[in-house]
Each structure stands twice: as structure tokens, then as C-alpha cells.
């Protein structure tokens, strides 16, 4: 067994991909708070988010944008890529403003050197109404990004904006080809344009879907009414019929992680993308990751075993790299079996004789007891999985505790601070926050309230 550690450097975002450097125009990437100048393109970003009901019970205690995905809040993945592009101002369109999102925003502003502004809806406004609500602010910019809040992908923002500007597009939609497009907005295309937009058709006429990232020219705000309005059902079909809707196709990984099953699938795709790009030093640094390869060479094939370690900040990452001993990692190599892709925090504790993977994420200050088996699952921060437990196809919410010899499988979601007593079996159940489970749950789809 061999391992390889990704090299470190010193500053987040210092290393932009060469292709981005050569293709980008700095006036296009950096924008100011001042009104438009004739030779300047300003880019803003509006993050549309609701109540996150599809990710309950996780969102009963944490707003969906702050749910950790691969050891980073969902929205931080988006902010990271926006900051890499030089974007300095972000608007968050939210239906309510809890204290924890306010504190989080302050951290993000400092970490990524951006300004984040809240636009709070007094009543639900759909996906289009929030743009009209912020019209006075957005009118300062020629063009601006709009993100759906539960999209994870490679974020080809620079390439997308280049396309948008070169074609003088009123509105550009990121699209992605998928196997089953019925759950998404489907686009019919011709050349560079979308000729028809159908929201969640029963019989799709195309495999290309709306991938949830848009670039709007400010003129589009004139088409949006000042009320609850759906971009997908009201605005996009009209723009398509008027030849005003362009598309940029994404060929890399993409996931809508708004449901538990999709969350785990997105987690797998995210780590597969990390595996493909694991030797790109700037990418690992931007994501505050260190990579180790634990591949075993066999006569017929190579069993891919990749361990990624995440850090809260650049100072912790640099401190870790300066310590040549790193007994934390050596203990994992000695006592833990890694299968496939595994992502852990630098503060994760893993006891002896555990088997992890494929597709496992362990959050900050998570403790995994001796002899545990975990696969295709996520254990969120400050949770404890006690000895000889088995977890598969499940999401364990933060601050939860799973007793010895427990078995959790069949797409289970535990909310925050759930306690499972020892020797409990849970099959395809959703357990609300702060519940204590004393008996096994055999009924599939059970909701424990």
C-alpha cells in the first residue's frame, strides 16, 4: 500500500487555472459598487432559497444553504467559486433570516473577501419574484449571475460568461445532459439557443435540462412581474419563443442535492471529480484539502482508494503540513481500511479496525468507534458512531449519537442531536431532531416524531 500527499501552498485562490487566465477579461470578472460605465461589465449573483422541505429533517434546525455538503456548507461551495472569479458582491434572496445565517455570512465575507447582502421576502415570491424585489440594486449591473441554492457542480462561471458576452445574450442558462430529465426543466435547443422550455414534462423531448445557474442581462428584469412568479414556468418559455434564451452546456459533473438520495449521489459525484483532479494543486488548496492515494496494485486492476482530508481554514492546513509526523494520518493508514473515495475532517477521530467507503464523508469532530463499517453515507459534525455499528445509504445529522452494534440502512436520515440506543436496527426511516430511539424501526419510510 502506498500513499501520495498533495502539495501545499499558502493562499486561497492564488492559483487560477491556466485556461481561465487566458480566456478571462479582468473587466468582466471584477465589478465595483459604482454604477455602470460603458466599458465595464459588472457581475452580481442572486442565490434563491426557500425553506428546504425536501431535505427535512436536516433543515428543521439548519437552513438548507448551511447544511454541510462534503464538509462545507452548500452555499460556501458557490461562494468559493464566485470569489475565485473575482466577484465581490453577492445577494442572498431568502424567505427568512435566522441568526445562524447572519453569523455565517460574516465569516464568509471575511474568508473570501466579498460583500453579502440579504434580500428578505415578506411573502413567498417564487423563483422570479426575488429578482424583481431586488431590481433597484440589480439595475446597477449590465449582467449578473443567478444561482439555485442546492446546485453543486464544477461551476464553469468564466467560460459561461465569455459565451454570454460573445453572443450578446439577454439570458444564458447552464444546461446539462441527464439520463432521466422528467424531474427537471427540459430545454429544446437549436444552434446556441433554446427554442422551447418545458418544466418537468411527463414525456421529455430532450435529455438536456436546466442546471440551475443563469446569467441575466438587466433588461430581463423588465419581463418579470412584481409578484410571486416562476422563472421556469412563466419567464423562460416566453423568452424562448422570442429567441432571447441562450444555453451553455456543462459536460462535467453536476448534481441537484435537494433530496436525501440526490444528496448522497451528489456526494459521490463530487468525490469522483476530486479523484479526477487530485493532482491539481490549486484545486485542492482552494477547497482546503489534502489528498492521499492508498491504491493497491493487483495483477488485473487497480483498486482505487482515495482519502481526502478537509480543513476549516488555511492556517490549520499549513500547520498540518508543517508537522512531518502527522500521527493522525499514520494511525488511519495502519488501522483503517479505505474502499473507494472517503473524505474526512482533520478533526475526525477513527478508532481501530474500521472499514470506510465507498462514498463516505465524516465531518468535523466526528468520532467513529472501533470496528465500524460505513459506506455510501455522510456523518455530520460532532456526531459519534459507537463501536461495531453498520451504516449504509444514510445521512447522520450533526451532534447525533449511535449506540454500539447498531445497524442503519435503506436511506435513513437522522436529524440533529438524535440518540440511538445500542443494538438498534433502523431501516429507511426519517428521525426528527432531538429524538431518542430505544427500539428498532423496521417499517420502511417511517417518520419518527
Automatic annotation (TrEMBL):
Signal sequence annotation: none
SUPFAM superfamilies xrefs: Nucleotide-diphospho-sugar transferases, Trimeric LpxA-like enzymes
Residue ranges annotated for the Mannose-1-phosphate guanyltransferase C-terminal domain, each copy included: 338-446
Keyword Lyase: no
UniProt protein name: mannose-1-phosphate guanylyltransferase
Keyword tags: GTP-binding, Nucleotide-binding, Transferase
Protein family membership: Belongs to the transferase hexapeptide repeat family.
EC number(s) given by UniProt: 2.7.7.13
UniProt record, GO biological process: GDP-mannose biosynthetic process
Species in which this protein is naturally found: Plasmodium falciparum (isolate Palo Alto / Uganda)
Matches recorded under CDD domains: M1P_guanylylT_B_like_N
Amino acid at each position: 500500500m502506498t500513499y501520495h500527499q498533495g502539495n501545499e501552498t499558502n493562499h486561497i485562490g492564488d492559483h487560477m487555472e491556466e485556461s481561465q487566465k487566458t480566456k478571462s477579461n479582468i473587466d468582466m470578472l471584477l465589478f465595483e459598487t459604482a454604477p455602470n460605465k460603458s466599458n465595464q461589465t459588472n457581475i452580481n449573483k442572486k442565490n434563491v432559497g426557500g425553506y428546504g422541505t425536501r431535505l427535512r429533517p436536516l433543515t428543521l434546525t439548519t437552513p438548507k444553504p448551511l447544511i454541510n455538503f462534503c464538509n462545507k456548507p452548500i452555499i460556501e461551495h458557490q461562494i468559493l467559486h464566485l470569489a475565485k472569479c473575482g466577484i465581490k458582491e453577492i445577494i442572498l434572496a431568502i424567505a427568512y433570516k435566522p441568526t445562524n445565517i447572519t453569523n455565517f455570512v460574516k465569516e464568509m465575507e471575511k474568508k473570501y473577501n466579498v460583500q453579502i447582502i440579504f434580500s428578505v421576502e415578506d411573502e413567498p415570491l417564487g423563483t422570479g419574484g426575488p429578482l424583481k424585489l431586488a431590481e433597484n440594486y440589480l439595475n446597477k449591473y449590465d449582467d449578473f449571475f443567478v444561482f439555485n441554492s442546492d446546485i453543486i457542480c464544477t461551476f464553469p462561471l468564466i467560460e459561461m460568461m465569455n459565451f454570454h458576452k460573445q453572443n450578446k445574450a439577454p439570458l444564458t442558462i447552464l444546461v446539462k445532459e441527464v439520463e432521466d430529465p422528467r424531474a427537471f426543466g427540459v430545454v429544446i435547443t437549436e444552434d446556441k439557443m433554446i427554442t422551447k422550455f418545458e418544466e418537468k414534462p411527463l414525456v421529455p423531448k430532450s435529455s438536456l435540462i436546466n442546471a440551475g445557474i443563469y446569467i441575466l442581462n438587466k433588461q430581463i428584469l423588465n419581463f418579470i412581474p412584481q409578484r410571486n412568479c416562476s422563472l421556469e414556468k412563466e419567464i423562460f418559455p416566453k423568452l424562448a419563443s422570442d429567441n432571447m434564451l441562450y444555453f451553455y452546456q456543462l459536460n462535467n459533473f453536476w448534481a441537484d442535492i435537494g433530496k436525501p438520495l440526490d444528496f448522497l449521489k451528489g456526494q459521490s459525484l463530487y468525490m469522483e471529480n476530486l479523484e479526477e483532479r487530485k493532482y491539481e494543486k490549486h484545486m485542492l488548496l482552494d477547497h482546503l484539502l489534502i489528498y492521499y492515494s492508498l491504491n493497491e496494485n493487483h495483477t488485473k486492476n487497480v483498486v482505487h482508494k482515495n482519502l481526502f482530508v478537509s480543513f476549516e481554514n488555511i492556517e490549520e492546513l499549513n500547520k498540518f503540513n508543517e508537522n512531518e509526523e502527522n500521527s493522525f494520518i499514520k494511525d488511519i493508514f495502519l488501522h483503517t481500511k479505505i474502499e473507494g473515495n472517503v473524505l474526512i475532517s482533520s478533526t475526525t477521530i477513527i478508532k481501530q479496525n474500521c472499514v470506510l467507503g465507498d462514498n463516505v464523508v465524516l465531518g468535523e469532530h466526528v468520532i467513529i468507534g472501533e470496528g465500524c463499517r460505513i459506506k455510501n453515507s455522510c456523518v455530520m459534525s460532532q456526531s459519534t458512531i459507537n463501536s461495531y455499528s453498520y451504516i449504509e445509504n444514510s445521512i447522520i445529522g450533526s451532534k447525533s449519537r449511535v449506540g454500539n452494534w447498531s445497524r442503519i440502512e435503506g436511506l435513513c436520515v437522522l436529524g440533529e442531536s438524535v440518540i440511538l440506543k445500542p443494538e438498534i436496527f433502523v431501516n429507511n426511516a426519517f428521525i426528527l431532531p432531538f429524538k431518542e430511539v430505544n427500539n428498532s424501526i423496521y417499517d420502511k419510510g417511517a417518520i419518527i416524531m
